[in-house]
Specification:
Blueprint lengths: L15 H35 L4 H7 L13 H8 L12 H32 L5 H12 L3 H14 L6 H5 L6 H11 L4 H9 L4 H12 L1 H17 L2 H6 L8 H6 L9 H11 L1 H20 L5
Helix pairs in contact: 1-14, 3-14, 4-8, 4-11, 5-8, 8-11, 9-10, 11-15
Length: about 300
C-alpha cells in the first residue's frame, strides 16, 4: 500500500499590498524612534555646548542650543583639569577627589547590592518556607515607601551605629534593594529547579550551587541591575548629603551642588564637571547593553 506524499507547506509570500503595509510600518517606527532619539540628544548637546562657554555667559543666558563660534573656548575644560580659571588665576578644587569618592562608593555598593539582593531573591524563588508570601508582600510594600519618609529613622540608626560621615553609612541602608530583589526573583522563577537538584546530587553545597550554577545563569540580570543600581548610587544626593559632613569625602553630586553661587563664578566648572560625570554611566551602558535586553526579557518566560 503506497502512501500519498506529504505536502510541504511553502513559506507564505507577501503580496504587493502586504509588502507596502510592512514597509510603511517600518518607516513609521524609524521616524518615531528617530524623533525620540533627537529629544534625548538635545539636552546632552546643550550640556556639551555649555562646557565651551564662560561662567558669566552661562549665568546670563543659561544652557541653550545657539552656538556662537567666537565665544566658544576650552577654558572651562582647562579649569577642570588644571585649576586655572578663565582670568588666569589658580583656584584649586576637589573635583577629581569627589570623582574618585563616587567611583569607590558606586563600585562597592553596586557589587554588594547585586550579591546580597540576588541571594535574597534566590531564597524567595527556590525555597519553600512558612510565611514566604507574606514576607514577599512586605518587600513589595517597602518598594512603595518614599525615601524621604525613611530618612529620619535611617539617619537615627546610622548615627547610633557610629557610621555618620562615613561611606559605610551611605551604603548600608541600600545594600539590599527591594526593586533588585523583586527583579531577580522574577528572573529566577524561569530557571528550572532540576538544575539545582542536579547540582545537589553532584555534591554541591548550597553556596556552591548558588555561585557555580545560579550566578552564571543570572549574568544578563546582573548586567541590567548593574546599570540601574550604579546609576542610582552615582546620582544619589539627598541621603549622602545628610550623612557626610567632611568635604574631602563628598561624592560628585554633593560636590557639584556646593559650586552653586548667586554670582555664577563656578558655573563653568559645574557644567563641565556635570558633563564629565556622565561618562561612567555611558560606558557601563555601552558595554552592558547586549545583556540588558536579555535580562529584562528572560524573566518573563518560564521554562
Amino acid at each position: 500500500m503506497t502512501t500519498a506524499p506529504k505536502v510541504i507547506n511553502s513559506p507564505k509570500v507577501m503580496g504587493a499590498p502586504e509588502e507596502k503595509k510592512y514597509l510603511g510600518r517600518r518607516i513609521a517606527l524609524w521616524i518615531f524612534f528617530g524623533i525620540l532619539s533627537i529629544l534625548f540628544i538635545i539636552p546632552l548637546y546643550a550640556l556639551l555646548l555649555g562646557t565651551f562657554k564662560g561662567g558669566a555667559e552661562l549665568f546670563v543666558s543659561g544652557l541653550n542650543l545657539n552656538p556662537t563660534p567666537e565665544k566658544l573656548h576650552l577654558k572651562a575644560w582647562n579649569y577642570l583639569f588644571t585649576g586655572i580659571m578663565s582670568n588666569g588665576e589658580y583656584n584649586p578644587h576637589d573635583y577629581f577627589l569627589w570623582y574618585g569618592n563616587s567611583l569607590v562608593v558606586v563600585v562597592i555598593q553596586t557589587f554588594l547590592t547585586l550579591l546580597l539582593s540576588s541571594m535574597v531573591a534566590y531564597g524567595f524563588a527556590k525555597y519553600k518556607f512558612k510565611g514566604q508570601n507574606a514576607l514577599f508582600m512586605c518587600v513589595l510594600m517597602v518598594m512603595m515607601v518614599p525615601l524621604e519618609i525613611l530618612m529620619l529613622p535611617m539617619y537615627t540608626q546610622v548615627n547610633a551605629m557610629g557610621l555618620r560621615n562615613s561611606y559605610a553609612g551611605i551604603m548600608l541602608p541600600f545594600l539590599v534593594s527591594m526593586s533588585a530583589v523583586f527583579f531577580f526573583r522574577q528572573f529566577l522563577s524561569g530557571v528550572p529547579y532540576e538544575m539545582i537538584e542536579a547540582a545537589r546530587v553532584d555534591g554541591c553545597t548550597e553556596y556552591g550551587t548558588f555561585f557555580r550554577i545560579i550566578v552564571p545563569v543570572m549574568i544578563p540580570a546582573y548586567a541590567s541591575m548593574t546599570v540601574l543600581t550604579g546609576m542610582g548610587a552615582w546620582n544619589a544626593l539627598l541621603w549622602p548629603m545628610l550623612v557626610l559632613s567632611d568635604m574631602k569625602k563628598y561624592t560628585i553630586p554633593i560636590g557639584l551642588n556646593t559650586l552653586w553661587s548667586p554670582y555664577g563664578n563656578n558655573y563653568d566648572l559645574m557644567i563641565t564637571g556635570s558633563c564629565f560625570a556622565i561618562l561612567p554611566l555611558l560606558l557601563i551602558y555601552l558595554f552592558a547593553q547586549r545583556f540588558i535586553v536579555e535580562g529584562m526579557t528572560a524573566g518573563a518566560v518560564k521554562g
